[in-house]
Amino acid sequence: MSKLHQVLEEEIERAVIFCPIENERDKDYQIAEISRLSFSAGLEVEKVFTQSIDAFNRRTIMGTGKLEEVRNYIRDNDIDCLVVDFQLTGSQLRNLADELKVKVLDRILLIIDIFALNARSSEGKIQVKLAQDRYLLTRLSSMTGSQGRFGGKGAGMRGPGETKLELDRRKLEKEILTLQNEIDKIKASRKQNKILREKNGIKSVVLGGYTNAGKSSIFNLLTRENIYADDKLFATLDTTSRRLFLGDNEFCLLTDTVGFISKLPHELVESFSATLEEVKDADLVLHVVDVADKYYKRNIEITNKILDDIGATKNRLVILNKNDLLSGPVEIEENQILFSVKKKDGVEKLKNAIRIALK
Ligand SMILES: Nc1nc2c(ncn2[C@@H]2O[C@H](COP(=O)(O)OP(=O)(O)OP(=O)(O)O)[C@@H](O)[C@H]2O)c(=O)[nH]1
Ligand SMILES: [Mg+2]
């Protein structure tokens, strides 16, 4: 039986990206996002190929001419891996790997892989393992017996912690049940905490937002806790809570959480339900935005949609972070606060706004 081997050390692999373009208007955004994701998975992107979704080919996603172009490039440039910015079926993954003779990662596997790299706490690891198992289970029939594509090392092959990924249906199903049970236990203990918190009148404030916006940095600045912050996507997977003093003997519970991204794979949304419930149940969501990101307005929309989808309908406050990187003025709407962790700019204003929002 084939196994996915766990590789903990980051290996740089040479990759090309294929982006099916659904909407010409979003093309630059899509390319920028998938390139950053690939970088965060330890891939060195050598070239990005694009094609309109109209040229869609059910068997290999890209049309025959494009397939030839990609094949030639891969052969001539010693490429290890193809990233496809799309959700592929098991047979599409197999067809592409057979045609191109390289490892193929779709958008979902790439994101799950970054999560696998970053899972630290047992809760994070359980949730990532569950997402991996769900991903494998739905593509199992096409994956077994194919030419070692899911063996080997590097991106797409990593397992959280000590676990090894196995391509065995019965084992996967059993493991999924066990993992779900563990997540149910986490949720139950969270519920218990929530009841206690409410009984004691302690409000909960959650940092949410697009990945890499600066949530953990803000958490660290406000609570002086040292949480891992890095200029890579999905640096945080674990929820961490700390008291945040607001002055006048008042305090709330501040929680740092996982970052969001467009088209968050449903395997991850379902597997990270314990974390997302924390966001949903909060009295206030601090929606952190990297205002220096060229696409920040788009990122605000994406985060708002995810927050709506998970039912986080309560109070929201938008923090326009990384203000120090701005060269010109920016328009600020009501319930938005300009902030900079780097310059420690906006701390008192933010605490005040939190206090008012929690009243
Ligand atoms: N220049 C500047 N950089 C910042 C600021 N705040 C955060 N950063 C940097 O932005 C990067 C991402 O910060 P994190 O705090 O890890 O972001 P996050 O939102 O927690 O990211 P994920 O956990 O990956 O979703 C890090 O390299 C930070 O040092 C800021 O105000 N100014
Ligand atoms: Mg973080």
Care to describe what's here?
The protein has 359 residues and is of the alpha/beta class. The chain folds into two domains: 3-171, 3-Layer(aba) Sandwich (Rossmann fold), CATH 3.40.50; 202-358, P-loop containing nucleotide triphosphate hydrolases (Rossmann fold), CATH 3.40.50. Helices cover 43% and strands 19% of the residues. It has helices at residues 27-40, 64-77, 90-100, 107-118, 122-143, 169-199, 215-223, 266-271, 273-281, 296-309, 347-358; strands at 3-4, 13-21, 43-52, 81-84, 103-106, 165-166, 204-209, 240-247, 250-256, 284-290, 315-321, 336-338. The strands form three sheets. A six-stranded mixed β-sheet has the order 8-9-7-10-11-12, sandwiched between helices. Helix 1 runs parallel beside helix 4 (107-118) and helix 5 (122-143) packs antiparallel against helix 6. The radius of gyration is 21 Å and the shape is globular. The model is unreliable at 1-10 and 144-151 (pLDDT under 50). Bound molecules: guanosine-5'-triphosphate and magnesium ion.
